[in-house]
Amino acid sequence: MNWSRGEAPPWLDVSRETLARMDAFLDLVEKWQPAINLVAKSSLPVAWERHVLDSAQLFAACPESAIQWVDLGSGAGFPGLIIALMAAERRPQLRMTLVESDKRKATFLMQAARHLGLEINLLSDRAEALAPLGADVISARALASLSDLCPLVARHTKSSGLAIFPKGAQTEAEVAEARKSWQFDATLLPSQTDPAGRIVIMKNLRHA
Predict the structure, then answer these.
(1) What CATH number has the domain bearing residue 68?
(2) Helix, coil or strand: residue 99
(3) What is the C-alpha separation between 1 and 77, in angstroms, rounded?
(4) Does 150 map to a domain?
(5) pTM beyond cutoff 0.85
(6) Is the dihedral of CA 199, 201, 205, 208 positive or negative?
(7) Helix, strand, coil percentages in the chain from 3-state DSSP, rounded to 5
(8) Is 90 contained in some domain?
C-alpha cells in the first residue's frame, strides 16, 4: 500500500492515459475543495490511495454484461467518476448514473464530467424520491449503513443486479444487522486500500 499519486498498483489494469485522467480529476477535486468541502481535508494528502484507488478497486466486481451502473450519494465523484473513467477505456458500453441531492456537489460532478470528456447521467435528487432506475450495478461509498442501503438497492436494482459497497472494520456487524430485515447473498472481499476494510458484493436482495 502507500501508493504515490499517479502510481498504479498491480491490480489496477488501466492505461497511462486513464491514470492521467484520474490525476486530472484529483486536481479538480483539490481546486473545488475550498468552496464546497468535497472530501475530508485530512484525506487530501493521501487522496490518491484513500479516494481514487479505493474507488477504482470496485470496478473488478462489475459483470461484463452490465450496462447501467448507478452510484448513490456521489458527492465528490468517488467512486462514480473514477468508475466512469475506467469504463471509458475498458467497458465503453457501461453507462454511469450519478445520484447527488446536494446542488453544489451536483454542479461539481457535471463540471468535472465535462472537463474529463465523460458522458454521464446526473440526477440531483434523493435516491428514495427517484423512480426505480433498473441498475445492473449499484454502489455507494460512505453514504449509509447496509441496513439503510438495502431499501435503495431493492428500489433501484434489477432482479439480476448486484450492489457493491466498500465498508470498514465493522462490515460483519453491518451485514448481521441488515440480515434482521433483509435476505441476500453477500460476498466479502478484502479491500486493496484499507487493511481493515471489506468490499461487500450483495445479490438476490429481498425482504426477510
Answers:
(1) 3.40.50.150
(2) strand
(3) 22
(4) yes
(5) yes
(6) negative
(7) 45, 25, 35
(8) yes
